[in-house]
Amino acid sequence: MVEPPQGPSRPQYDDEISLVDLATTFLRRRRVFYVIFLVVSLVGVVYALFVPEKYEYVSLMKLAEKANGTYVEEPATIIAELDSLWVPDLQATYHAENSRNLPFKLTASNPKDTGLIRIVSEASPPLAELIEKNHRKLIERLSSEQEQALSRLRKSLEKQIASLDSTIKMLEEGENTGDAIASAVEKQLALESDLQSLSPFEALVVSRQSGENAGTSRSLIVVLSIMLGLMAGVFIAFLAEFIGLVRNQLAGE
């Protein structure tokens, strides 16, 4: 009777590791795991207890506005100036005076579809006074620039109105100038309306502290430290076993 061909047998390796071997190794080195887990977790808890709370400090400004919801200077232009000129100048001045960098960032943004400029810094409460001081410097610089731009626009409108007024008086002395006078008066009224609708720059909020901690949550730090302790403990336990086996091998040779 012919026996059916046998399939290829699975090779056996001496160095295969089973779950039982892993569990045995872990139990043998469990003291290493406990020590590493407790040390890492305690370090995380201590750090969570002593890490300083951070808050957001927000300044909010409204740009000078023209008629029809347009602005004397576009918000995007203001943000570009803040990011590329004014904030770096402020940081350089602080570094020159104190031989160190400003201990917080100054971030400027423009809420979508608004004429608002928002300056935000994140730091611990002891820096609140320094943050307010630097926010005010930026606000004062922006206010000065906005006032100058608004003044130039106001003078331009007043000049155009005065010119139209002279034109109207000249037309009144002529004949058959009714249509021209009406057009000039209409334009003059429109310019006067634009002049009246000019709205100045305004600082709405200066360095207001947020109500909630903007930094990493203490509970999150504790949870992450426990997870890190578990992973580090397991890794070090198996590493200790590996080192022990290597030493035994070298001792045997």
Automatic annotation (TrEMBL):
User: InterPro entries given for it?
Assistant: Bact_polysacc_biosynth/exp, LPS_length_determ_N
Where does it reside? Answer: Cell membrane
One Pfam family named in its UniProt record: Wzz
Question: What does the record say about its membrane topology?
Answer: Multi-pass membrane protein
Q: Which UniProt keywords apply?
A: Cell membrane, Coiled coil, Membrane, Transmembrane, Transmembrane helix
Coiled-coil intervals? 128-174
Is Coiled coil set as a keyword in this record? yes
Keyword Transmembrane helix attributed? yes
Segments forming domain Polysaccharide chain length determinant N-terminal: 15-93
The transmembrane residues are 32-52, 220-240
| Database matches in PANTHER family | CAPSULAR EXOPOLYSACCHARIDE FAMILY (PTHR32309:SF31), TYROSINE-PROTEIN KINASE (PTHR32309)
Q: What is this protein called?
A: Chain length determinant protein
Q: Which organism is it from?
A: Marinobacter salarius
